[in-house]
């Protein structure tokens, strides 16, 4: 049974990737999870410099989901390369680094540093974080901004480039196409949905930043729809995410058009979710007599649905 | 090293209309848990509530002289998850990940241990009191609650030889008011050359007041902080506390892995 998939030139041993912002730098989970058993680990977003992020409270739970505004706290790309990357390399982890920037130049500089480091396998461009004022989303909500970031980073690295798209736009597929046109190897979607939770007793927001990003099973059907829409307009691989909690959910994204999937919030609920999803995928492949998981990608049966 | 177990609930005892003690069969966690460590717990597998909740390990359960068989959790009903835990029935299964986090540093005699607990913040002190007793450390529990009927396990602590100083906000048991008042007074009367280690757990305001009181009397203080926590593993960066770094500046550190027990003097209390 072949669970491997390809994202551009990068071969993943299986389609499961730990989602950025939900798995620290990976090393935090090394006591509990065999990190090399994952298709990949997307580490927490990195700027050139360290960032403190927002003050607590940073998350609030919602029905079948959670809203977070961490504020991209991080140790900066140089400390990551010095302090975290050697252990990830020693553990044979397929490392995808989530790259942040407040300017096109910063995306390029962080990407260049990572390209020179040993042990980075792909770059995910974070142009979609809803929780910081400067950078990120200002590129991800503009087609020209998306194109500019991707094309500038394309010039400085041979690593696969995967822009991470925001769902907080009218037509996410046009952003996937802008990414493809600019030379991206794949796109990942969706980041979180901009959201707000209020305490009705105090009339104050429940998290310090006021607004935050909604994740978890609550968003899954919208995310599946967006992956499906992007699949119709781009040829590059899609990494799908948004509320995946089990094998069925992961398979749904793949059938909708995702070559690989990321799991975020479900890892908080169950840090051992990875093996359970992989077991469920194998069981599905046996039941459907599939030899390669890649064969289900983009196979929605739209026969009786002319509107699709 | 933490383990994730499907722990059967073996007992659930209501202490009051809000507080309960949940007993979980979790020998692997019970065998290695140290005072101050916590577990991440969720009842059932549904999506609402979604996340696990952090709980201090309250007691280690033993069957006779046998090895540790389980743990208990002291819970106060404040929301959907703690309501489920209050109403849990024996035979149900809870996902239980632990032990997690940095434990208390247990002092040795002749240093005295003064534990300061507010409400459900009593939780980490049952195992700490046992560890102190094993080292024959003279121990005192300063314990505050809203009312007298929310002061629990007093006989347990007395049986370990712990001196009790009690306060209630309504004055129904002990001194009326907050627990930091007698703490401040008794610390003031203590000779400066008689060493004391403070341990505190409770609401944020109480922890901040305890930290100020400890600093005022030049006493070290270990606090067990409580933040809204997403994962307990260092993955989500939700539970941060501003803590003084080696560079002399405050940085957000994750209380799940840098804590929950932290040196009070290094925390900025907002």
Short description:
With 308 residues, chain A is an alpha/beta fold. Chain A is 32% helix and 20% strand.
Structure characterization notes:
The complex is a heterodimer of chains A (308) and B (270). Chain A is built from 9 helices and 16 strands. With 308 residues, chain A is α/β, with parallel strands linked by helices. Chain A has a single domain, classed as Aldolase class I (TIM Barrel). In chain A, helix 7 (247-256) links the parallel strand 15 (238-241) and strand 16. The longest helix of chain A has 15 residues, at 273-287. Chain A is globular, with a radius of gyration of 18 Å. The model of chain A has no long low-confidence stretch (mean pLDDT 96). Chain B folds into 2 domains: 3-100, Elongation Factor Tu (Ef-tu), domain 3; 112-266, 3-Layer(aba) Sandwich (Rossmann fold). Chain B contains 6 helices and 16 strands. Chain B has helices at 27-32, 80-86, 125-134, 154-159, 180-188, 204-216, and strands at residues 3-14, 19-25, 38-43, 53-56, 59-62, 68-76, 93-100, 112-118, 139-145, 163-168, 175-176, 196-201, 221-224, 240-244, 250-254, 261-263. A 7-stranded antiparallel sheet of chain B has the order 4-3-7-1-2-6-5. In chain B, strands 11-10-9-8-12-13-16 form a 7-stranded mixed sheet, sandwiched between helices. A two-stranded antiparallel sheet of chain B has the order 14-15. In chain B, helix 5 packs parallel to helix 6 (204-216). The chains are: A alpha/beta (308), B alpha/beta (270). Chain A binds chain B through residues 21-24, 28-29, 31-32, 44, 52-53, 55-61, 63-66, 68, 70, 73, 216-218, 245, 265, 267-272, and chain B through 1-2, 4, 42, 47-52, 95, 97, 227-228, 230-231, 233-242, 251-252, 257, 270.
Features:
A: 308 residues, alpha/beta, TIM Barrel, eight-stranded parallel beta sheet, globular, B: 270 residues, Elongation Factor Tu (Ef-tu), domain 3, seven-stranded antiparallel beta sheet, seven-stranded mixed beta sheet
